[in-house]
Amino acid sequence: MADLKYYDVILKPIITEKSMNSMSEKKYTFSVHPDATKNQIKDAVEKMFQGTKVLKVNTMNLEGKNRRRGNTTGKTSATKKAIVQLTEDSAEIEIFAGL
Fold this sequence. Notes:
Layout: H1 6-9, E1 10-13, H2 17-21, E2 27-32, H3 38-48, E3 54-62, E4 66-69, E5 72-75, E6 79-86
Antiparallel strand pairs: 1-2, 2-6, 3-6, 4-5
């Protein structure tokens, strides 16, 4: 298991129509480090965004897609996605506020 700091766990937010609709239920979607655990993701969200309290974390491992360029074939890198649900009395996450 990798020795990850909280600022290395969350890579970027995922902005899609489905993730934006789930924000009304206080669910936020992030791309996370492939070796991150649910507890590390929870700690990272609570430390990076002040006033947030995480209720639960759902994670998904996404395999790389097959790609072809001419006669050469390969795969894109595998990624991990996390859906973080906040408690009712938790503060909103600011990076999603202007979207």
